[in-house]
Amino acid sequence: MNDSNFIEVNGIHFETIVPKRVLNLPKKDVIQKLSYIGKHILTPPLHPSPGYPVEIGIRITNNSDRHLYFTFNFVLFPELIRAETGEIVEISGGWISLAGVKEPDLALTMPGESTSFFLDAKICWLCGNNYGISMVISGGQFVFAPLDLGWYQLRFRYENQKETKQLYDSIVKKTQVIEGLWTGQVLTPFVEIYLV
Prior knowledge:
Elements: E1 6-9, E2 12-17, E3 22-23, H1 30-37, E4 52-54, E5 57-62, E6 68-71, E7 76-82, E8 91-96, E9 106-109, E10 114-118, E11 120-127, E12 130-137, E13 140-147, E14 150-160, E15 164-169, E16 174-179, E17 184-187, E18 191-195
Parallel strand pairs: 3-18
Antiparallel strand pairs: 1-2, 2-5, 4-11, 5-10, 6-9, 7-14, 8-13, 11-12, 12-13, 14-17, 14-18, 15-16
């Protein structure tokens, strides 16, 4: 079953959530304006602005007949392309954490229930007339830059091949094995966003 922002696979409904599709860019501060003026003197002219939050997430609905766990640690990856050219926007920076799975990284979803997961997403000016979108997900951060004004398409790749995960419980100081994770790979349909 396909729609503009969801796909259903074996009774599991994956939906991209972007409530505001038109994203207004933040204004440059004084330091960024000076950085742009002196871009030929300063190498590289880089002064990121404070991040302005953007709501970007995924909703997973369990339409199967059994409860399932969904994890968000190293299984959820955003993809961004320029709508007019089909060009993939490269990841220009970020980081990866090897801390392992924590309790907020797992969601038990009963039949007929949904689980939503929002990224810590922010849009900011980087240097000159460039800006980027930073998306922090459990296990790492992706920075898509440089971006221009215009239409983009966003989707998620959700891929989990392990039916179990080890979860360290810091309260009882023991490792617990969580069973019943959904396994498979899904590409959510693209959702259009417009940067103005």
